[in-house]
Amino acid sequence: MALNANHAFEDLGETKCSIAEKNCTPARADFLKDLLELNGYTVVIVKSPPPKAAPKPAPKPVTEGEVAPVVEAPPPPPPPDTFTVGVTDLMFNPANVIYNRNLKTRDGHYVTPDYWKQKDAASRDEEWYWNK
């Protein structure tokens, strides 16, 4: 168990892993797997457990002479499939590898926070204030 949420560990399948991200979509899991394997990490992906269902609200009390309406709500849609992405290197910490510039993309640029979050399609090396 991690001391804080920034460096989480779990057993994914039979392997102890450092968690890269939880509850991500299949497309996000594929993106992270490709990026992390490109940088030399062994990636483990498992399906996340479904979220716990909220308790049903209690029915309103019916007074004498009233007829309780019978309304059946449609069943809720099934929750989307989500995945947990882990890395077998227990020293892995997503914040550290991004901000220490330890990850690179296929074209050789450093991974930026926006690229990691998939807000930016291409990772551009930023000009750091101490390089000016």
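(ticket continues) Second input and output from the same batch:
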Amino acid sequence: MNLTVAQLVLDTHRVEVSGWDISQSFFVEKPELEWNEVNGKQITLRRVLRKKTMLFVRLLQSTAADRSSPVAYWAEHIATTPQGFHQFRLNQVFPHI
């Protein structure tokens, strides 16, 4: 499979992430969401999460009138940085019909 330049472009968006960490404490963080066609959506958090934790991610925009609704994702741990932050791949949750 040949990768095009468009697939390698990394988009970043400031988001608000909320959910429950490994100690079952509710948290809210405001990391950057990184997205591209190859690696999907990824975030880096200070918190450790349980396997298959569901997170709610909301895009932060410049005006309060344009607030977006949160979207549910499963968090898949992919790495821990040398600084102790935890990187996760986000997989969107779809309702079962």
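Agent notes: The chain has a mean pLDDT of 87. The domain at 10-92 is CATH 2.40.10 (Thrombin, subunit H). Closing as not reproducible unless the customer responds.
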